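Fold this sequence, please.
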Amino acid sequence: MEDKLTLDILGLTETHKKSYKPDKLRFLDYNVNKRSFINFSKNVSVPQMKLANWLSVSLRTLQRYPYSKELSNDVKEKLFSLADLYSKGIKLMGKDNFNKWLEKENRGLGNVKPSDLLSYYSGIEEVKNILERISHGVYS
């Protein structure tokens, strides 16, 4: 899950401490805080309000956090999942094209815009599945 681009999107540096956690839980090794939220928004050109909605947190709440306050594990996990999704999408299409693609209705998702599904873990996984199909040349 944590490739270099995923970490770059969040403004994090790779941790060198030994982790015995499964890959999907390695995000717990990082201090993901308000700064990571801001970095994500800036690095992938997603408005903070939209990102806060995807995280199911009010933007006002996030704005009140001190920069160093670590986000809750639920928010941290979803932010990492979104960064991983963006990493895959950017590698496949480039940042601008991926952002445009997220806003277009997709037949493989029942004519729903991929961005409308990103508030849900299952929605993030469905969008990742579509990206995987596209990477293998399957029209989606």
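The two ends are 23 Å apart (CA to CA). The mean pLDDT is 89.
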